[in-house]
Amino acid sequence: MAFYVVQFLTGLASAASLFLVASGLSIIFGVTRIVNFAHGAFYMIGAYIAFTLTERLSGAFGFWGSIVLAALAVALIGVLVEMVLLRRIYHAPELFQLLATFGLTLMVEDLVVLIWGPDDLVGRRAPGFKGAIDFFGQNIPSYDLFLIVLGPVVLGILWLLFQRTRWGVLVRAATQDRDMVAALGVNQKWLFTSVFAVGVFLAALGGALQIPRDAVHHAMDLRIIVEVFVVVVIGGLGSIVGAFVAAVLVSELNAFGILIFPKISIILVFLVMAVVLIVRPWGLFGKPEAAARKTPGLTVNPWRPLTSNERLASLAALLLAATLPLFAGNYALTVGSEIAIFVIFAVSLHFLMSVGGLASFGHAAYFGLGAYGVAFLAKMAGLPMIVCLLLGPLLGCMGAAVFGFFAVQLSGVYFAMLTLAFAQIVWSIAFQWVSVTGGDNGILGVWPEKWAASPSNFYWLALGVAALVTVALRVMVFSPFGYALRATRDSLLRSEAIGINAKRIQWTAFVIAGTTAGIGGALFAYLKGSVFPDNLGISLSVDALVMVLLGGVETVSGAVIGAIVYKALNIWLVSQTDLSKLVLGGFIVLIVVVFPKGIVGMLEMLAQRRRKSSPPGSPLLAKPIESAE
Amino acid sequence: MRARNYFVGAAFALLAGGMAHSAMAQDIKIGEINSYSLLPAFTEPYRKGWQLAVEEINAAGGINGKKLVVISKDDGGKPADAQTAANELVSSEGVAMLTGTFLSNIGLAVSDFANQKKVFFLAAEPLTDAVTWSKGNKYTFRLRPSNYMQAAMLVEAAAKLPAKRWATIAPNYEYGQSAVQVFKKLMSEKRPDIQWVDEQWPPQGKIDAGPVVQAVAAANPEAILNVTFGADLVKLVREGNTRGLFKGREVVSFLTGEPEYLDPLKDETPEGWIVTGYPWYSIKTPEHDAFLKAYQAKYNDYPRLGSIVGYQTIKAAAAILAKAGSTDPEKLIAAAEGLSMPSPFGEITFRKIDHQSTLGAYVGKTALKDGKGVMVDSSYKKGSDYLPSDAEVEKLRPKD
Predict the structure, then answer these.
(1) Which of A215, A258, A332 shows the shortest C-beta gap to B212?
(2) How does it sit in the membrane (chain A) (predicted)?
(3) Helix A502-528, helix A455-477: angle, nearest 10
(4) I need a surface site. Which of A28, A193, A445, B209 has the fewest CB within 10 A?
(5) Hey, are the CB atoms on A119 and B264 less than 8 Å from each other?
């Protein structure tokens, strides 16, 4: 019995550290609607700074003072980031802030190694909380007890802050309807900055409090960020109490789950999230999201098919790309093939995200399923390459059909997180089912047949498929189906009122996007000759998101450019420098600031501005051309 | 960084394409790939190790009179990126062979690439048995003692312990799984009387140490096998110390004696664990002394195990290239098979039968000295003594 009590308390201690970080994320999202990918980075910097301070300052006051000081210092960094970077892009399309914070995270990961060195750092134990307390023969670390008390105390303080202060009232109001708060004359700028500072403070505090029990190292951020997101979503976005309950739920399920299934930890949080979201689409304590007011960008600048000139230009670009084998070496061709494959992957997500308004955080699942489909067919059934390429993506299609059915019942961030959960479940199956998938050692020896083996032939194959896919998806955008899909994106209510079966349309779009991603994955398996669980992993999903956002989420085919730029830059930087994350992160942040609509989005805006500012004769001249399309 | 740029050479090799080649026709190039950005704690000393080797080789006149150049790439911890790097090294840099890699799945990906493209690959670090056995191929050789060898070394010591009730804690991925599997198999062969009472599989890098320690303690084992390392190990040790998990229990632990993993533990180092590792401070052989002196003189820092691996990888590569007198992969294979060479750990041989080197490891016990973790009572275990019989190996390895 004593054992179960102690195990429960241990779970509570884990919950407390999770809650601290999660609450910060929840507050930030609730008010600013920023999906703050850098939250883990702030957590990590908190731990690093606290390590340095506790090594310098001695004594009990020194230790606790260092913890608070570290959190305050990081909060200050957070304020700086908010004012310099995020303020510029609040009006950018949704999720664009994710790109900025992703760039920051990349930079921080390299920076901490530069500043603090590559070794794992082990900080001091907390003075007064070094030992353990005996509980009927079981030991409970006193630091755990401290954390168990701290969790609810922080919850209480936050509750008081939100319920009893004017600032808290404003924050809650903004969480509900930030436009209305702005309309009532509240200075939003400072409200957002202060909220961001509080959130970052909590993250850094959570990180600093880890030093007596963890090692401080440069991968701490990734370890926590996804888990924290999951906790926030299970609890319900913007709900502090929800975050607390979810943290306890997840930690306790883990603490007791490992007694029966020792391998459960790897997937537990995602299973819980999938179940919770299917049963309660807005999390445990969340409320249905108020219909978001659309950014006007979409209505002001309606999509149109390419003009004949633009078509010719695209064709010329394609032909130019097809001449690459005439002058480039094998390496350049292989890189070219990889980029072409990522174009397929990016446009498939773009179709779901921009046309359907459904941002998936787990799109790599279908890419990876396509790759695994090919690997199974080629290695187990021994089918020829063409057949594998045609049938392999069907695995992605089936996955998308099953998961898409559940996912499209939700919207916004909840949709995104459910797709993430499904992707992680697929990933863990690939990872754990060693006898079939080879586990993390993957499936090797999936090389192309002779006719496609030479780099130039494979490049033409990849390029051809990429072009076909891009054109097919564009055709779909301007087909009746595409219009229906865009209608569900722009107004679910109105589209249903005119008789569009929104869920079915979205589901179809999900399946199309998943199958297309599967095509990319199938080619990828042959390009690399092997398949690994990595091909389904979070980082690949994030890559896809970054490519779409970089290209411009409000454009018809920005993802193509986004994929080319991001992938080429990534490969080049990784090859040239060990600090590729720092440089790439910096580049992304720069792009975000300079091109808040993405690269293609910005180019389109410039083109339009030029059209408007040209002599009065030209708009009239332009009109008949446009209507002639 | 500066040194690296020197080795990397042409920053615009990508643009210049073939032009760079003719300029350095007299050099012999080796392509090196590792997870520099993902695992700096291991790969930084590793890099220092191979840079020292390159310097020594060129100071001694290069390889058959030609200068050795190592072109190094980061794989970011992803198999797919490692293949891109391998491709660049082979196709556009024209390297004579590939070396390096740390993670098992990356080692396997590059080995498969080498097999497909018919390139010689000397795997430095990946531990999985698959590299030389179940997924072995004729182009791939490996330097470091495999999972099986390290398990066999530990089992030798562990089987002498009186403990009968054993529990295991291992990261939930291939390395942890196969380490536990081999250890259990070899242990049960030697000691049919032992029971396996609990196993814990925390996700790699994400151990929730409190509940794990508690769960293991609840099974009340007499001895524990640990396979976690890095930050997970730190958390496990800290929780285990506070909760008294290790009190009165024997612990056998993979890799914990390596400075990379032992040093961060500082004064929390648990005493009396039986570990594999690298006690650089107590190895007193002329070969190691020479290495240690050269390393400390160049870097003013002590070597980690990674330094040894990096150093010996390039030394081995150079020895193979020198003997082959050619960069033709088939000749390199012929030269490498059965080739013996000196190393800081004594003479090693690349076995013909499975392309595994006989580099060994040190087994000893952890202890606390002046607030730091050290390995004591350590002795060197030759790799050749801990490999299964040739008949068994032939069954494990596919025919080329």
Answers:
(1) A258
(2) Multi-pass membrane protein
(3) 170
(4) A445
(5) yes
Give me the domains of chain A, ranges plus CATH numbers: 2-279 (1.10.3470), 297-321+331-572 (1.10.3470)
**Tens digit of each residue's pLDDT (9 = 90 or more) over A234-279:** 998 888 999 999 999 999 999 999 988 888 888 888 999 999 999 9
> Which pLDDT score, from 0 to 100, does residue A292 have?
55
Query: What distance in Å separates the CA atoms of residue B343 and residue B360, rounded to the nearest whole number?
Result: 11
Rounded to whole angstroms, how far apart are CA atoms B98 and A530?
Answer: 18
Q: Which positions ≥6 away from A365 have C-beta within 8 Å?
A: A399, A403, A419, A422, A423, A426, A427, A514, A536, A541
Specify burial of residue A37 (Cβ count, 10 A radius: 0-12, 13-18, 19+).
buried
The phi, psi pair for A132, rounded to 5°, reads -130, 160
Domain covering B2-146+284-359: architecture: 3-Layer(aba) Sandwich (3.40)
Single-letter amino acid, residue B21:
H
Which of the residues A530, A579, A584 would you substitute to probe the B interface, choosing the one with the greatest number of B C-beta atoms within 10 Å?
A530
B276: pLDDT confidence band, cut at 50, 70 and 90? Answer: very high
How close B90 comes to chain A (CA, Å)? 8
Whether the pLDDT of residue A59 is over 80: the answer is no
User: Cβ contact (<8 Å) for B116 and A581?
Assistant: no
Q: Which chain A residues touch B201 with a CB distance below 8 Å?
A: 262-263, 265-266
Q: What superfamily in CATH does domain B148-282+361-391 come from? A: Response regulator (3.40.50.2300)
Closest approach of chain A CAs to the CA of B340, in angstroms?
Answer: 30
What sign results for the dihedral spanned by CA atoms B173, B176, B182, B185?
Answer: negative
- pLDDT for position B22: 42
Amino acid identity of B98?
Answer: L
Q: What tokens were used for A488?
A: 């569900």
Max CA distance (Å), chain B:
67
Q: How far is B347 from chain A (nearest CA, A)?
A: 31
Helix ranges (DSSP H) in chain B: 2-8, 13-16, 19-23, 40-59, 79-87, 104-117, 147-158, 174-190, 209-218, 230-243, 259-262, 286-299, 305-324, 329-336, 390-396
- Supply the pLDDT for residue A57: 86
Q: Phi and psi of A393, rounded to 5°? A: -60, -15
| Contact with chain B for residue A217, Cβ under 8 A | yes
Residue matched to tokens 């010329």: A316
Nearest Cα to A257, choosing from B166, B171, B214, B196?
Answer: B214
Which amino acid type is present at position A117? G
CA distances B380 to A179, B279, B293, B345, Å, are 71, 10, 20, 8
Alpha helices in A117-165 (DSSP H): 142-164
Res A32: pLDDT: 83
Q: Which of residues 103-122 of A touch B (CB under 8 A)?
A: 109-110, 113, 118-122
pLDDT tens for residues A93-107? 767 888 889 899 999
User: Which of these, A299, A628, A281, A291, lies nearest to A486 by C-alpha position?
Assistant: A299
Per-residue pLDDT at A625 exceeds 60? no
Query: What's the pTM?
Result: 0.89
Identify the bridge partners of residue B63 per DSSP, sorted by sequence position: B66
| Partner residues linked to B100 by β-bridges | B33, B123
Task: Examine domains B2-146+284-359 and B148-282+361-391 and report if their fold is the same.
Answer: yes
**B108–A219 C-beta distance less than 8 A:** no
Q: Where are the domains of chain B?
A: 2-146+284-359, 148-282+361-391
Antiparallel, parallel or unpaired: β B120-123 and B97-100: parallel
From first CA to last CA, the distance across chain B in angstroms is 41
Task: For residue B198, report the phi and psi dihedrals to the nearest 5 degrees.
Answer: -160, 150
Residue B333, both tokens: 């294979």
